[in-house]
Amino acid sequence: MLSLLSGMFLQIKSYFFVGAGVLLLNVFLQTRPYWGNMPWWFYLLIAGLILITVASFNEWNKQKMNKGESTFITRLKEMVIDKIKKWD
Fold first, then answer.
1. Which of 15, 36, 55, 75 could staple 7 via S-S, CB 3.0–4.6 A?
2. Residue 11: pLDDT above 90?
3. How many C-beta atoms surround the C-beta of residue 29 within 10 A?
4. What pLDDT, in 10s, does the model give residues 53-74?
């Protein structure tokens, strides 16, 4: 957590990405016992929701791009990428 926060405040990419990676790995490893105790239909439900969300977002994004508009999410993504490119 310290690496993640120092990477954000000092604007150093390597500290930020290492901190984020370690934090995600820790979350996955700490919750691993709970993943095996879910019923089979819960995995199908999660996978279906993810697939429907991705397909809906892509279709919505295509419709906005055909009209010549940009979505909030694409503007936010561009802002984040531009800010991270300015970091060391």
1. 15
2. no
3. 9
4. 999 988 988 888 888 887 777 8
Q: What DSSP character marks residue 75?
A: H
Helix and strand element counts for the chain (H, E): 5, 0
What average pLDDT does this structure show over 34-62? 90
Calpha distance 87→9 (Å, rounded): 10
Query: Within 13 Å and on the Cβ side, how many CA atoms surround 64?
Result: 13
Residue from 46, 51, 29, 18 nearest 1 by CA? 18
In what helix (H) or strand (E) does residue 38 lie, and over which residues does it extend?
none
Same domain? For 44 and 86 the reply is: yes
* Shared-domain flag, residues 24 and 43: no
- Look up the domain containing 30 and give its range: 1-37
Q: How long a stretch of residues is the chain?
A: 88
Q: What are phi and psi for residue 50, nearest 5 degrees?
A: -65, -45
